Amino acid sequence: MCIADRQLDPKTRRRMIIGNLSLILGILLWNSVRWNWIHPSSQIERNYLDGVCGLLLGISIGINLFVLRHCSRCGQKENEQSI
Questions:
Q1: Which helix (H) or strand (E) holds 42?
Q2: Packing angle between helix 10-32 and helix 43-82, nearest 10 degrees?
Q3: What is the pTM of this model?
Q4: What are the CA-CA distances from residue 22 to residues 1, 14, 37, 54, 56 (Å)?
Q5: CA 26, 73, 66: angle at the middle one, nearest 5?
Q6: pLDDT recorded at residue 25
Q7: Cα–Cα 20 to 30 A to 69, which of 9, 29, 33, 36?
């Protein structure tokens, strides 16, 4: 991303960390069956695994978009105040 880490407040930084960690966990869960980390024995367990994976990826997308939108608004406010 083009956002410098020093431009973010601590709350926004924390949100970005949570979003990126949920992205990593979602990708790891998505590939866990293929890499033989988890052995689901029934279709219900596979559906549950897919649901949790989708939830984590959705959380990641939502948080990252929220943070980017928040950062762009903060940049506009700072530019208006300096004029």
A1: none
A2: 160
A3: 0.74
A4: 17, 12, 18, 10, 5
A5: 15
A6: 94
A7: 29
